[in-house]
Design brief:
462 residues, alpha/beta, five-stranded parallel beta sheet, binds S-adenosyl-L-homocysteine
């Protein structure tokens, strides 16, 4: 290690910033966040620094730097574009044993300013010891995207209960176990979804011993159409903390690779008309597992609320008083069309878009054909491969042109993504004479032509 990472308390301490430009402003802002009393000395100052001075947030002295200015300072930052002056400030500070940072000059610094992920009171500092600040920033961006914003609130909540927890559990291992469970369980989830008061009450109930016997939680998670890069941050987080994962055929291998390694995996099937586990049993299984105190992730393809029967699953959970969260996912229509160069709407060709199921509850395809067979609209058929001939005939007999462009997207957004472009009249022949695998989505409308216009090449996800 080139530097010792430490966090310094500079609350109400006088800190000097030499220079008043944009870079100085950024350093000043950071110092103010840590509640320092900032003195800024500079000959010409930028608007932002001037504004801070006008608001009384800093002391601004518009003059040239003098040696005596370092007196009584707890920390010094030199952020001028005058190299000799920066070196002079550094030398003076070092000889007075005052920590000094000179912007972009690691050699002149006695401390460096890290890249920061701020989830106060949790703060993560990343340093490359001045060797690759851009890399440190990239790492920061990665952390920013994986650490929920409400971690700060969670830490705050824990801070408020620290003494009580200490009093209740005298052994450090017991305390650690308690906090580990709290931070990865339902209380943390409540904080993340903004229910801080409820989380507080639950935590208090646990400490008072008045909490209900432990009930787990169910996460109904949309796993998107296939490409794991299309998962949301929230989906990924919950997939990685669940104890049990219930998944079906629509969830891609790439997505399954991202679930928690030691989670129990339960396959609940679902091919057309061939449910490995009937829907009613899935609903009940979710309830039973949660009642055992487990965190259950019901992972579904696409979005759980779009032709996903997610509504039925949470109804059973609600009836049984099981806490649950629903995480939206990118639905097949959105993922498949985007990855195929087909905008679902377009100012010139389509002002609305309808998502329609080609597989009704009773096995029929009894749809409002008059409403579907209109111009300037895109129709996206889910689960319609088997009924392709019927839907083509119905749309044509209700007035849609036989030469209306149609795209079939097979295994959209996965490494096997394949697009077939045809016309409404030719659709049945294509489906009957080609081996097309489920899942496949059928997109009907003028927008399909844009794929050619855009000279689209499908992304190779391999
Ligand atoms: N909840 C899912 C849809 C479930 S219905 C969602 O929001 O996407 C199942 C149908 O979705 C399939 O029959 C198929 O028509 C479509 N589908 C799902 N994933 C797909 C994919 N990767 N490529 C093509 N179609 C897909």
């Amino acid at each position: 290690m080139n530097y010792l990472p430490i966090f310094i308390d500079i609350k109400q301490k006088s800190c000097l910033v030499v220079g008043g430009g944009d870079i100085a402003y950024r350093k000043i802002s950071l110092l103010l966040k840590a509640h320092a009393q900032v003195v800024c000395i500079g000959k010409s100052v930028c608007k932002n620094v001037q504004a801070l001075a006008n608001e009384g947030k800093i002391t601004l002295i518009e003059k040239a730097f003098e040696s005596s200015d370092i007196k009584a300072q707890s920390l010094i930052v030199s952020a001028t574009d005058d190299a000799p002056l920066n070196a002079h400030v550094s030398e003076l500070a070092k000889s007075a044993n005052i920590p000094v940072n000179v912007v972009d000059s690691p050699d002149l610094c006695s401390f460096v300013m890290p890249s920061i992920v701020d989830r106060s009171p949790i703060v993560i500092a990343i340093s490359s010891a001045g060797k690759a600040p851009v890399l440190a920033r990239l790492i920061r961006a990665k952390l920013e995207s994986t650490i929920p914003h409400a971690y700060g609130k969670l830490a705050e909540l824990a801070g408020n209960f620290r003494d009580q927890v200490k009093a209740k559990f005298s052994k450090i291992e017991d305390r650690r176990y308690f906090w580990e469970k709290t931070f990865s369980g339902i209380i943390a989830e409540k904080v993340f979804s903004g229910k801080v008061d409820e989380a507080k009450a639950d935590l208090q109930a646990q400490l008072d011993g008045s909490a209900d016997s432990e009930v787990g939680e169910v996460y109904l998670v949309g796993g998107g159409p296939g490409d794991p890069d299309l998962l949301t941050f929230k989906a990924l987080r919950l997939m990685q903390q669940a104890d049990v994962i219930l998944y079906d055929r629509l969830v891609s291998d790439g997505v399954m690779e991202l679930v928690r390694r030691d989670a129990e995996l339960i396959y609940v099937g679902k091919e057309r008309d061939n449910h490995a586990v009937p829907q009613g049993d899935i609903n009940q299984l979710l309830v039973d597992l949660a009642k055992q105190g487990r965190r259950v992730c019901r992972l579904k393809g696409g979005d759980p609320f779009i032709f996903g029967r997610g509504g039925e699953e949470i109804e059973t959970l609600a009836e049984n008083g099981i806490p649950f969260q629903v995480v939206p996912g990118i639905t097949a229509a959105s993922g498949c069309s985007t990855y195929s160069g087909i905008p679902l709407t377009h100012r010139d060709y389509s002002q609305s878009c309808r998502f329609v199921t080609g597989h009704l509850k009773d096995g029929s395809m009894n749809l409002p054909w008059d409403e579907l067979a209109v111009e300037q609209q895109t129709i996206v058929f889910y689960m319609a491969l088997v009924g392709a001939r019927y839907l083509s005939e119905q749309l044509i007999s209700h007035g849609m042109r036989g030469d209306m462009p149609v795209a079939l997207v097979e295994k959209g957004t996965t490494p096997d993504h394949q697009v077939y472009v045809t016309t409404l009249a030719e659709l049945p022949n294509l489906v009957e004479n080609t081996t097309i695998h489920a899942p496949t989505l059928i997109i009907i409308g003028e927008v399909v032509k844009l794929r050619e216009k855009l000279n689209w090449f499908d992304v190779d996800n391999d």
